[in-house]
């Protein structure tokens, strides 16, 4: 069934004769990946309530329990209806388990897999792009040049020009998540209405205060349960280019990284070895904080956190005027959860 365009995937799932047995959705834009996964799930189970007919797993849970994925695939819902087996934070280690399911002649539930951007050399990606019973949809991140051209067109469409040095500075501040980049550029355009062009000073006025507060400090405060510090960082970041969905996107990327690290712990690695592993790129000054977070947040808790942040991102897309309130509420909820987890582990 090979590669499917993201826009066509839900329609394919709805076609009983052509629907694949397993679907892979991968890409660097985690909120977009999650959004598409949610739409697939709703189409399959025909409900907004995932409680009974969706099983959430990680790669480590599947590979650590041989036979579990096939049991989930072939199981029948106790209350009727279609089921989805949703595996998050997947990598090439999952390929062998999925191969067994795809090779079976038994019909079963849909297996939905989400992953970060996978290279062409990825075994998992190759499997889904070549197997007749599987489908793969990729949500690609824009290149710097593509982002530049898109933002230039957006600015020009509003009757403005932008100085070269101002554009270069804007790109330094900009998120590569499409929705965030567009939203923040529109804020800059609104600020510059009545002018003929956007200057470096304009960009600095709207975007230049991001250095006053570290996003790493913010996410660490949230996941350690330090509510006062988290609130202070949110306030200092509030009007910058990292506000709104940009802040939530950074938190989401942190959750994904913690999921990958937590998965290593389930396979027998120590916290010390994981936080020092080059693949995760944890700066040495953050290692104590990340170690604490890994002690308090397990895979299940991180999956729940990912769902809450993705839902908040979707809400900010629908209600951009409520960005600040939605961000504060989402981060406060995570911070409270972190504080409770820390209290239980003490």
Describe what this molecule looks like in 3D.
There is one protein chain. Helix content is 58%, strand content 9%. With 346 residues, it is an alpha/beta fold. It has 3 domains: 6-139, P-loop containing nucleotide triphosphate hydrolases (Rossmann fold, 3-Layer(aba) Sandwich), CATH 3.40.50.300; 144-208, Helicase, Ruva Protein, domain 3 (Orthogonal Bundle); 212-345, Zinc Finger, Delta Prime, domain 3 (Up-down Bundle), CATH 1.20.272.10. The strands form 2 sheets. It has a 5-stranded parallel β-sheet with strand order 2-3-4-1-5, with helices on both faces. The protein has a two-stranded parallel sheet with strand order 6-7. Helix 1 packs parallel to helix 2, helix 11 (215-224) runs antiparallel to helix 12 and helix 13 packs antiparallel against helix 16 (299-318). The chain is globular.
Question: How are the SSEs placed, and which strands pair?
Answer:
Elements: H1 6-14, E1 22-27, H2 30-45, E2 54-58, H3 59-63, H4 68-74, E3 84-88, H5 95-103, E4 110-115, H6 123-130, E5 134-139, H7 144-157, E6 161-162, H8 164-173, H9 178-191, E7 197-198, H10 200-207, H11 215-224, H12 227-237, H13 245-266, H14 271-276, H15 287-296, H16 299-318, H17 323-345
Keywords:
single chain, 346 residues, alpha/beta, Rossmann fold, Helicase, Ruva Protein, domain 3, 3 domains, five-stranded parallel sheet, two-stranded parallel ribbon, globular
